[in-house]
Design brief:
The complex is a heterodimer of chains A (246) and B (469).
Chain A (H helix, E strand, L loop, with lengths): L5 E10 L2 E11 L4 E6 L5 H9 L5 E9 L2 E2 L5 H6 L2 E4 L6 E5 H13 L6 H14 L10 E2 L5 H15 L3 E5 L7 H14 L4 E5 L3 H4 L6 E6 L2 E6 L2 H9 L7
Chain B lengths: L2 H8 L14 E2 L6 H10 L4 H16 L8 H5 L10 E2 L13 H9 L2 H8 L2 E6 L2 E7 L1 H5 L3 E4 H7 L1 H7 L10 H9 L4 E5 L9 E6 L6 E2 L2 E6 L4 E9 L7 E3 L2 E6 L4 E8 L5 E4 L1 E6 L4 E8 L4 E4 L2 E4 L5 E10 L4 E10 L5 E10 L4 E10 L7 E10 L5 E10 L5 E10 L2 H8 L5 H17 L4 H15 L5
Parallel strand pairs in B: 3-7, 6-9, 7-10, 8-11, 9-12, 10-13, 11-14, 12-15, 13-16, 14-17, 15-18, 16-19, 17-20, 18-20, 19-21, 20-22, 21-23, 22-24, 23-25
Antiparallel strand pairs in B: 1-2, 3-4, 5-6
The chains are: A alpha/beta (246), B alpha/beta (469).
The complex binds adenosine-5'-triphosphate and magnesium ion.
Chain lengths: 246, 469
């Protein structure tokens, strides 16, 4: 395949005048799984949000390219339609909008002409919901309204499976999941990785037991300070982050 | 301002087209006792109705403008510039093919004949001052249901009209109910006999076509003991640069155990003053539901009311208001618990955008002898930008300590995070805004007949287009 799916070059990001990401570079190719670990507040969610295009964050220097296109040329919804997906650490509640309607509209927005017709959509939906152990009563509930933590995360993964992205940014999708759900979600992630690149933000080794990362990056204070293979996650779990600081 | 620039000022309003004005009878502009008498004479009314009109006219002249609502806008109304009566068709037809072609085309474009075939039990279509089309399904007629335009109602059932007319809303209730009582024309007259359940909704559609028109329909609905009825109402008008006045009075009477649901989606063009008085009386164990949507108009002042007069009666008022540029929606609900063990729910939702203003104005009253009453009032406002405005004026008069009352109010904004979340799922900012707005109104929309709900959602999505900037 060659070309890079995502390339982040010496990225600096500020929010409200405060620098959060302080020179970060990262390259993801299709089929690769990159895990990012790091302390609370080190800037992991900020990175994912900037890649997806959250308006609160300002890129002060450096660049992010998606399939060779600088992302600032694309609006958030264009990034989504171009194959980018983000699973939110804190998914928003949309009162009054039913999950079923929302999913149908989102699939048609993102996958457009090539997407499934109504019947195919229902079939896909049914099979993904089954694999995620989601009851069909979810479809008539309002998006994330009154959802438990784990239910929200499952809905995020359901969206990922339906939208079929080429780049998945998964921000702490494993947090709040019970053991069974963790496996189900991991299966979901594994099912897309042959055609997608994946950035997994996580605090725990346990997801990485099921989803094997090609790279593990450690983020401290807005920078990647160390990159290693899957075994790095185990070290971190055992030793924490202190040993990485100068 | 030309019509074109008026249209630009109000944005894309799909119903803003107008027909040539082919009046068969058009009164000169302006109001006087003679105009009131002329209307009555033209309609060949009994003397008692002429008297009611003339008395009401005198009250109208004496009464001050309402001190609530929007005084600046109210004081701009030029009562002398209004046409008080305009007949555009020789009669009320039972067959669409008999309706003058221009007018029929208008109702075609509004989708009325199609809706009638699919899901309505009866239709009355009013154009300017009078109904041009009217029909009711035969099976309903056979069960004794009376569904007529108000003028025909007065002709055919004068004794019923005389017994109930203006008993729920006296002419002197407010300046605009006085005006309506003086110059009323058209509207619906419905009687549902004991125990009859009208399963399919009946619909009235009100269309203003002429410039500077005044439309003053008068509706009276009586549901006899243990009966039920669903009534839906729609309204539109062309977009002109000069104002029109719509001032209706709607009276509902729900006898013991009866149920009336009255749903409205008013989508007047932004040059229409919509000053409407709606009130129902509910006797023992009866239910009155107002489902009231205010999307259009320049100024709406409307507070659907229920008098809970019989023990165990129930009121439900669900309303939404959308105030865009230059619009003020002053709406709300009034519920009077006048008997023991009566219950009510009020849900009001408003959206303000582009400097629009929405006001919730409500009264909840529990009289001293009414023990065991329950009421819940929820008012939610959503502001789409900082220029817009929303205020809430809830009044509670509680005379009985046993009352169980809840009141919740919230004002919220659309958050960046919600928009970002939806946009990250492939929706443009306008689409995302449309979804949020439709979701906000959902508790209202789900109460509407499906066809209305779909139409309302589409309308709001259109309103969101070009809204961002
Ligand atoms: N919109 C914002 N306004 C102000 N500060 C912000 C904003 N978003 C993030 N920050 C700050 O930026 C820093 C990095 O936040 P970020 O959410 O990226 O951390 P994180 O690594 O994802 O942490 P966690 O592991 O707790 O999820 C934090 O100090 C946070 O308070
Ligand atoms: Mg985070």
């Amino acid at each position: 395949m060659g070309g890079e799916l995502l390339s982040v070059n010496d990225l600096h990001v500020s929010v409200e005048g405060k620098e959060i990401i302080k020179g970060l570079s990262l390259t993801i190719k299709t089929g690769e799984i990159h895990a990012i670990m790091g302390r609370n507040g080190s800037g992991k969610s900020t990175l994912a949000n900037v890649i997806m295009g959250h308006p609160a964050f300002e890129v002060t220097s450096g660049s992010v390219e998606f399939n060779g296109t600088p992302v600032e040329e694309l609006e958030v919804f264009e990034r989504a339609r171009a194959g980018m997906f983000m699973s939110f650490q804190y998914p928003s509640t949309i009162p009054g909008v039913q999950v079923g309607t929302f999913l149908r509209k989102s699939v048609s927005a993102v996958r457009g002409e090539d997407g499934p017709n109504a019947r195919e959509f229902r079939k896909e939906l049914k099979s993904h919901m089954k694999s995620l152990n989601m009851d069909k009563s979810f479809l008539s509930r309002y998006v994330n309204d009154g959802f438990s933590g784990g239910e929200k995360k499952r809905l995020e993964i359901l969206q990922m499976l339906l939208l079929n992205p080429t780049l998945a940014l998964l921000d702490e999708t494993d947090s709040g999941l019970d053991i069974d759900a963790l496996r189900v979600v991991a299966d979901g992630i594994n099912s897309i990785t042959s055609t997608a690149g994946c950035l997994l933000i996580t605090h725990y080794q346990r997801l990485l037991d099921h989803v094997k990362p090609d790279f593990v990056h450690v983020m401290i204070d807005g920078k990647i300070v160390k990159t290693g293979g899957a075994d790095l996650a185990g070290h971190l779990e055992a030793r924490g982050y202190d040993w990485l600081e100068a | 301002m030309s019509d074109k620039s008026a249209r630009e000022a109000v944005g894309d309003y799909r119903y803003g087209f107008h027909d040539p004005e082919n009046a068969t009878i058009r009164f000169d502009k302006g109001l006087s006792e003679q105009v009131v008498r002329d209307i009555s004479e033209l309609k060949n009314e009994p003397e008692w109705m002429t008297d009611i009109r003339v008395k009401a006219y005198r009250r109208f002249i004496e009464m001050p403008m309402p001190s609530w609502g929007n005084s600046d806008m109210l004081n701009q109304i030029d009562f002398e510039a209004v046409t008080y009566f305009l007949r555009s068709s020789k009669g009320t037809e039972k067959d669409w093919d008999e309706v003058p072609e221009d007018i029929k085309n208008t109702f075609d474009r509004l989708g009325i004949p199609e809706a009638e075939q699919k899901w309505l039990g009866g239709v009355t279509a009013q154009y300017e001052s009078e109904a041009v089309y009217h029909s009711i399904r035969e099976d309903l007629e056979e069960q004794g249901v009376i569904f007529l335009d108000m003028d025909s109602g007065l002709k055919e059932y004068p004794e019923i009209v005389k017994e109930y007319f203006a008993t729920v809303i006296p002419a002197s209730d407010n300046k605009f109910s006085a005006l309506n009582t003086a110059v009323w024309s058209g509207g619906s007259f419905i009687y549902v006999p004991k125990g009859v359940h009208v399963e399919m909704p009946v619909q009235a559609y009100f269309r203003i076509n002429a410039k500077n028109m005044g439309q003053f329909e008068r509706t009276l609905i009586i549901a006899d003991e243990g009966s039920s009825l669903q009534y839906v109402e729609g309204c539109t008008a062309p977009t002109y640069s000069t104002e029109s006045l719509h001032s209706a009075v709607v009276e509902l009477i729900a006898m013991k155990g009866a149920k009336i649901r009255y749903s409205t989606v008013q989508n007047w063009s932004a040059n229409v003053y919509n000053l409407v008085t709606k009130r129902g009386v509910a006797y023992d164990n009866a239910t009155i539901e107002w489902v009231d949507g205010n999307i259009g108009s320049k100024l709406t002042m409307k507070y659907p009311a229920v008098l809970l007069k019989g023990e165990g009666a129930h009121a439900e008022v669900i309303s939404v208001a959308y105030a865009g540029k230059g619009q003020h929606q002053d709406a709300g609900a009034k519920v009077h618990h006048l008997a023991p063990n009566t219950t009510s729910n009020i849900l009001s939702k408003s959206i303000s955008k582009n400097g629009g203003r929405s006001t919730y104005r409500g009264i909840l009253q529990v009289t001293p002898k009414s023990h065991g009453c329950r009421s819940k009032v929820i008012c939610d406002a959503l502001m789409l930008d900082p220029e817009s405005q929303s205020d809430t004026y809830p009044t509670m008069e509680v005379g009985n300590a046993s009352a169980d009352l809840e009141h919740e109010a919230s004002v919220s904004k659309v958050s960046n995070d919600q928009l970002f979340y939806l946009m990250s799922r492939g929706h443009s900012e306008e689409e995302a805004m449309g979804m949020i707005v439709n979701g906000f109104f959902e508790p209202f929309t789900r109460e509407l007949p499906m066809e209305y709900a779909v139409e309302l959602n589409r309308l709001l999505e259109l309103e969101m287009e070009g809204a961002i900037g």
